[in-house]
Amino acid sequence: MEKQILIKENNFDKARKIIKENPDKTIIFSSENDELNRKVLEKLPIKILLLNQSKRKDFQKQRNSGLNHVLAKIAKKNKIGSGINFDEIIDSKEKQKSEILERIKQNIMLCNKNKINMKFISSKYKRNPYDLKSLGLILGMPTWMTKNL
User: Fold this and answer.
1) pLDDT of 45 above 70
2) What average pLDDT does this structure show over 52-79?
3) How many angstroms separate the CA atoms of 20 and 18, rounded?
4) pTM for this entry
5) Using CA atoms, how far apart are residues 100 and 94, in angstroms rounded to an integer?
6) Which positions ≥6 away from 131 have C-beta within 8 Å?
7) N or C: which end of the chain has fewer CB within 10 A?
8) How distant is the alpha carbon of residue 53 from its chain centre?
9) Residue 86 to residue 91: CA distance in whole angstroms
10) How far apart are CA 140 and CA 106, in angstroms?
11) How confident is the model at residue 1 (pLDDT cuts 50, 70, 90)?
């Protein structure tokens, strides 16, 4: 099994330093700052961008899922996948859980359109891969995307 490292950072220079120190690992990057996410997508060699949904506020007429068509095109060009924070889904309360799932559905549609792979990332909970595939299909993932879960 390949080694993974989750980097939660809000400073670009610190993130770049950590990534350079771990060239042999699969790098999963996460940040609350959308501008930093775009900068990292464009300039750093990461494998997965993990988008956290729980602290986001939606716009008036659309959901703020952290991913848009511009970021999706950059991710496709640099062969970077998108991550779904599974811990966040499990730990959230009912109303917040429904909002998180709707944002994830929106990201799945964008990733499907741009042929970007998605993965469930979890540090607390271990789940059967078939459960994750089922959840992915329910949320709207196409079968080509669920094969790699």
Assistant:
1) yes
2) 90
3) 5
4) 0.91
5) 10
6) none
7) N
8) 9
9) 9
10) 9
11) low
The pLDDT of residue 59 is above 90:
no
Q: Residues of 110-134 as b/e, b for ≥16 C-beta within 10 angstroms?
A: bbbebebbbbbbbeeeeeeeeebbe
Which helix or strand (DSSP H or E) is residue 24 part of?
A: none
- Structural domains in the chain, sorted by start: 4-146 (3.20.20.140)
**Dist CA 135 CA 140 (whole Å):** 9
What is the rounded CA–CA span in Å between residue 125 and residue 37?
Answer: 25
Question: What distance lies between CA 83 and its chain's CA centroid?
Answer: 2
Check: CB of residue 86 under 8 Å from CB of residue 120: yes
**Residue type present at position 83:** G
- Residue whose structure tokens are 């059967």: 128
pLDDT at position 23: 87
